[in-house]
Amino acid sequence: MAETIGFYTLSVLILGLAVLVVTAKNTVHSILFLVMNFLCVAVLYVVLQAEFLAVIQVLVYAGGIVVLYLIVVMLVNLKGEAEAHQDPRRLSVIGLALAGAVLLELAGILVYSSGSDAAVPSSEAVASPVQGNVEELGWLLYTDYLIPFEVASVLLLVAMIGAILLARREV
Amino acid sequence: MDLIWLIPVLPGVGAALNGILGVRYFSKTVAAGIACATMGGSLLLSVFAFVQLLGAEHREHVVSLGDWIPPIPLQTVNGLGAFEVPWAFRLDPLSGMMILIVTGIGFLIHLYSSAYMSHEPRGGYVRFFCYLNLFCFFMLTLVLGSTFLVMFVGWEGVGLCSYLLIGFWYHKKSAADAGKKAFVVNRVGDFGFVLGVFLIFFTFGTLDFREVAEAAAQLPVETATFGVLSTICLLLFIGAVGKSAQIPLYVWLPDAMEGPTPVSALIHAATMVTAGVYMVGRNAVLFSQAPMIMTTVATVGVVTALLAATIGLVQTDIKKVLAYSTVSQLGYMFLATGVGAFAAAAFHLMTHAFFKALLFLGSGSVIHAMNDEQDMQKMGGMKLYMPVTFVTMFVGSVAIAGVPPFSGFFSKDEILYRTFLDNKLLWGLAVLTAGMTAFYMFRLIFMTFFGEYRGPSWGSQNGDDHAADDGGHHDDGHAHAWHGPHESPSLMTGPLMVLAVGACVAGFVGIPAALGGDNAIEHFLEPAFVAESAAHSEEGAHEVAHLSHAAEIGLMAFSVLIAAFGIALAYHLYVRRPERSKELATNWAGAHRVLTNKYYVDEAYNATLVKGTMGGARGLWTVDRKVVDGAVNGTGWFTRASAWVSHVLDKYVVDGLVNLVGWVCAEGSYIFRRGQTGLIQNYAVAALFGVFTFVTVYLVARFVGL
Amino acid sequence: MMEITTVHYTVLSAALFSIGVIGVLVRRNIIIIFMAIELMLNAVNINLVAHAHRLENLVGEVFVVFVIAVAAAEAAVGLGIILAFFRNKETVNIDEMNVMRW
């Protein structure tokens, strides 16, 4: 029962904050709502027994990326209204309608197909030599997923260099 | 004798020096010096060569300077022949005599010109001597040339120089026109000459004079037929007619008097115009084989002589009289060749060169003295002012009139005698001409030197003393003011005196047997006129036609009588009773007018040939303009029209298609282009629409069941 | 109140994703659009973690780690582009970023 209450509470928080992020007039407010949203998601991860991800979520998302956004907002330093100009040809209403329709359809699909595949235990529960969420994750990352892991690190390196190049004042 | 090639080359060098360097750098003295020195050198060489020739056993010498045209295979009548022309010069009695005449008289005239032309500005003076030297170069090439082609080089060259010198005062339209006329009329003759040369090569396969003569001697005499030899001779004779101013091509020679007087003396009296006679003599063997052409030559010669003499009777321009006299005397020479008396022709050629050059130079002296006045009606009494000129010209006139023992008497009587043997009618005409010759020459003398002075008065009219004083020490200052008639400078009278001596004694080389001589020149020249192979066999045949000495002397006496009558008539009409000549002119107005207008030959030529040519040219021009240009323009118009059609097609059909494709693309793309707004979010909407479609399809497939 | 199952999580995930999509499509401030994209990535992450939980298999969580890495890279490069663009055009309005058209 507590889990149910917790889940709905978190769900309302997450969705509400997400709506606030999208609708906020002030960009800084939007970022603050985003931070809170990320923190809620981290809590959700804890509920789902993914402690390491929860930590990563807090550290990387709420701590790193959002600070990055904040810094960019500071740097951009808008004088006028950010969204003053609106192109008459944009299809916002259609996009809104389509997005709602897709959500409804997905929800319908999920709700009506939920019985068929519920609680299928993994037949391939690999016997891991370590115990605990963090240890197992670490094990996986440094054994089976070593190469993707390294590729991800190269990706980050490239992104770093690219960001530096793009943000440099004089080329 | 091996240096005879230097004889023509020396004046050529002089001409090159004067022409290339002289016109810019040489003074008058240097230019005249070079010209006279080269001519003098040529004269000396000629004399040496001639003396050597006299001493030689075989009186023929050929010097070849090497190939001009290397052997070229060409078709002849006897199959393929080698067309080969060396730069060869031939010295034989005929050319020996000619080079003496050309260099001798040429040298004297060079000397004379250096004084006569002294009024010219420096450039014109040097140019004059350049031309004169060039003329001598070509003339000597002509007479020394050993083949027809080398001769032709000289032939054309003298024609060129004649043109240049007649038109020497080119700023005078009449002089320029006269030069053109001479050149064009000569072209007619040269055309015949060239055709003759072609035919000679085609017939004999060689162009060497001696070889042609030998070959021709082997052919039968064309008494009744008009064969290839006759054709050759006719063509060559056309060339000679053009160059030697015979009917019908004589019209250029009187006009050629527009040139400076020394030029008239050298080119149009002594040398170039005799080239035709020389050429016929050179080909004596050929002509001997064609009797029909010989008759033609004789007839043309005597008719020319008579006609020119009649015109000469009434001319008042002193040089025109001499010009017609020259034509007439050339007619005599052709008459001689026509009756087979080649040696007599050459003899007369020589004596004529002396006395006609003398007369021209004398007239030049008079003209000079009269400040370029040529009309005899404005002269008179000149013997007081210029005694030397008077005496020398008188000698010349006596010589041309045929008074013994002057040179003209011997040569002319030789011709008359040989003509008498051949044809009595021709003889009669020739004697009549001789009488006229005497008349018009003495008319000239009497009008010029006797009677009252009729010329314009001069500035300081202080009488005869002044003019007499002026005679000796004449200088270049003369040009600025005319002080009345006066004797010419010694550079001019000197040649006159030398030529006068020549005119006196030149005849003594040909004293006929009837008068106790041995006709040396005839024997000397004879080898040049017969083929070598025939020389000995025909020795006897030559002596066939013969009159007794008494009859010959009788003929001489008759012609002298005729000449004397002519002189007496002239004296009567122009000295004793000058008014009678005018009465005659009025009484016989018609004839007088015809003669004064030279039988209207020029007018006739103008009306027929010149007009015809011009008309033809104009017609052709019209054809050219209308038809050829029309065709060209039509082509152009057609091209433009088709281009226009093509342009329209291109513009509306081809471009239309291209534009249609473009328009279809543009219009067709409009609908697609509308989608390309550049708004990123619209693209995202499109992607979302894809997702929506995908999910919808899934949903329908899953739950509705398809 | 029923038990909370994976379906709940996936519906939550779908809703969060849809909110992100709406944000991307509707907002014109490019920074907020980027934030909406972060929301969508989070929705995916939730989905992955939920299923990993259900299947008791940590491979899903490994994917989340990679997604987070990619998100970090995306944020860095995207914000760099925004900065460069802003320096040239003095705007962050995506409607003015329309140079890629005819």
Provide an overview of this structure.
The complex is a heterotrimer of chains A (171), B (706) and C (102). Chain A has 171 residues and is mostly helical. Chain A contains 6 helices and no strands. Chain B is built from 27 helices and 2 strands. Chain B is mainly α. The longest helix of chain B has 75 residues. Chain C is mainly α. Chain C has a single domain, classed as Helix Hairpins (Orthogonal Bundle), CATH 1.10.287. In chain C, 76% of the residues lie in helices and 0% in strands. In chain C, helix 1 packs antiparallel against helix 2 and helix 2 runs antiparallel to helix 3. Chains in contact: A-B, A-C, B-C. At the A-C interface, helix 1, helix 2, helix 3, helix 4 and helix 5 of A face helix 1, helix 2 and helix 3 of C. Chain A: One of its GO terms (molecular function) is NADH dehydrogenase (ubiquinone) activity. Chain A: InterPro entries: NADH_UbQ/plastoQ_OxRdtase_su6, Nuo/plastoQ_OxRdtase_6_NuoJ. Chain A: This is NADH-quinone oxidoreductase subunit J. Chain A: Keywords: Membrane, Transmembrane, Transmembrane helix.
Give a short overview.
The complex is a heterotrimer of chains A (171), B (706) and C (102). Helix content of chain A is 71%, strand content 0%. With 171 residues, chain A is mainly α.
Give the SSE layout:
The complex is a heterotrimer of chains A (171), B (706) and C (102).
Chain A: H1 2-23, H2 27-47, H3 51-76, H4 92-112, H5 133-142, H6 146-167
Chain B: H1 6-25, H2 28-55, E1 61-76, E2 79-91, H3 93-116, H4 122-144, H5 148-166, H6 173-204, H7 209-218, H8 228-243, H9 252-255, H10 261-270, H11 275-282, H12 284-288, H13 291-314, H14 318-338, H15 342-369, H16 382-385, H17 387-401, H18 407-422, H19 424-449, H20 464-472, H21 490-505, H22 520-529, H23 549-576, H24 579-587, H25 589-596, H26 601-675, H27 680-704
Antiparallel strand pairs in B: 1-2
Helix pairs in contact in B: 1-2, 1-4, 2-3, 2-4, 3-4, 3-10, 3-15, 3-21, 4-5, 5-6, 5-10, 6-8, 8-11, 8-13, 10-15, 11-15, 13-14, 13-19, 14-15, 14-18, 14-19, 15-17, 15-18, 15-21, 15-22, 17-19, 17-21, 18-19, 18-23, 19-23, 24-25
Chain C: H1 6-26, H2 30-55, H3 59-89
Helix pairs in contact in C: 1-2, 2-3
